Amino acid sequence: MLDYKTHCVTKEISRPDKRILLSYPHMSGDELNFIKEAFDSNWIAPLGPHVDAFEKETAEYTGVKAALALSCGSAAIHLGLRLLDVKAGDVVFCSTLTFIASVAPAVYQKATPVFIDSDEDTWNMSPVALQKAFDDAVKTGKMPKCVIVAELYGQPPKMDEICAICNRYGVPILEDAAEALGASYYGKMCGSFGKVGIYSYNGNKIITTSGGGMLLSDDEEYIQKARFWATQARDSAPWYEHTEIGYNYRMSNLLAAVGRGQMLHLEERIARRREIYATYKKELSDTHGISFMPEAPKCHSIQWLTAITVAPSTGKNFMDIINYMNQQNIECRPVWKPMHLQPYFAGSKYFTHDEGENGSVSDNLFNTGICLPSASAMTEEEQDWVIKSLKECLSK
Ligand SMILES: *Cc1c(COP(=O)(O)O)cnc(C)c1O
User: Fold this and answer.
1) pTM for the whole structure
2) Of the residues 71, 97, 102, 103, which should be mutated to test ligand 1's pocket, given the most ligand atoms within 8 Å of the CB?
3) How far, in Å, CA of 207 to CA of 256, rounded?
4) pLDDT score of 4
């Protein structure tokens, strides 16, 4: 269409028939070749050559010595906590602004989570709040067994500061890189910072096996031990012999086949998600009241989800916007509700980034934050519709 005033060709932006979802699987077709191979060889089991290869390829990609493919990311966190000897009565420090799966496995182990606020630069664990929690632990004599550091929406935290603090107290990190496969910090891959790290291949993640997870470590004995627990803790004996209790947590060879096909396209998927973020930023940065989750210096985010905050001065809260977008056939979601605000964790200890009334950064992010559709398979036309709808909503 020609705009008579500017003599520019303007784009016709129309409502798509299909609902625009937040994040969904993006298959390449290559997965089918790997699945066919699994069928032809009849390796239809929670182990097999694709599982071995997927583990090896992922360990190489991340730059760690060993990896273990599992049924989900939650299982990987659970095994990771057990490796770090987290058990009943122990304290675990956790990022508060994250999905429940970061923390639930600590509850499986009957440990007590203590929650750590975010900082504004990364939206991830604040080194300032973490230091406060350690100061308190020293005072009360109850040191944490480990620190679970989540990597929100594909972005690394300030890992140099967090690692320095944890090293000072000799406390290991469990790095929850479920949302951050392919992200890096000063060139080092997310998933390789902790004593153990994890990825998730749930259907909404950057790549998917429909459901799945990976446990990573430079300590090969750790991975061997976790493999033992993940396979029902079967001792080596001619019969079924058990000196410990394990789990049925391993990944199927069929799903590992999907994962290998997905891995071939990971870099393209990351590039596309970053492009989607850049487009939102270009088109919406001038809109009053909108700010973007920042990409901190040296933090190479995969931009799994583009997240924004909408200032109260717009007169709109996050539910007004989500409901409006919903009417336009667009799925937006609130930012994760912080763990310290969850009814289940009422009364838990929580350390904020700042003091005073507005001290909790994560509370503010939850109260103003929205995740925008970010799927790598989303078309330009669909994204145009999201941008137009959001501008419309805020101008009403
Ligand atoms: C997706 C996710 C997990 C793991 O989820 P699974 O569905 O068990 O694979 C863990 N932590 C975070 C932050 C996640 O987003």
Assistant:
1) 0.96
2) 102
3) 12
4) 53
**Domain at 298, CATH number:** 3.90.1150.10
Confidence of residue 12 (pLDDT cuts 50, 70, 90): confident
Q: What is the mean pLDDT of the chain?
A: 96
Predicted confidence (pLDDT) per residue in 156-174, tens digit = 999 999 999 999 999 999 9
Residue 9's pLDDT is what?
59
Mean pLDDT for the stretch of residues 290-315: 95
Pocket of ligand 1 (CB under 6 A): 72-74, 98-99, 101-102, 150, 176, 178-179, 200, 202, 213
Structural domain count, the chain: 2
Going from the Cα of 37 to the center of ligand 1, the distance in angstroms, rounded, reads 29
Domain assignment present for 372: yes
CA 277, CA 23: separation in Å to the nearest integer?
13
* Helix (H/G/I), strand (E/B), else coil: 24: coil
**Structural domain includes residue 8:** no
| Nearest one of 106, 199, 117 to 145, comparing CA atoms | 106
CA separation for the pair 334, 272 (Å, rounded): 22
* Residue whose CA lies nearest to ligand 1 atom number 9: 73
Shared domain check, 271 and 252: no
Last residue of a domain, one of 236, 263, 290: 263
Q: Which domain holds residue 245?
A: 30-263
DSSP 155: -
Whether residue 207 is found in the same domain as residue 290? no
Pocket test for ligand 1, best of 179, 247, 335 (most atoms within 8 A of CB): 179
CB 285: neighbour CB atoms within 10 A?
Answer: 11
Distance CA 134, CA 374 (A): 36
C-alpha–C-alpha distance, residues 156 and 175, integer Å: 10
Q: How do residues 176-229 score in pLDDT, each as one tens digit?
A: 999 999 999 999 999 999 999 999 999 999 999 999 999 999 999 999 999 999
Single-letter code of the amino acid located at 265? H
* Percentage of the residues of the chain whose pLDDT score is greater than 90: 93
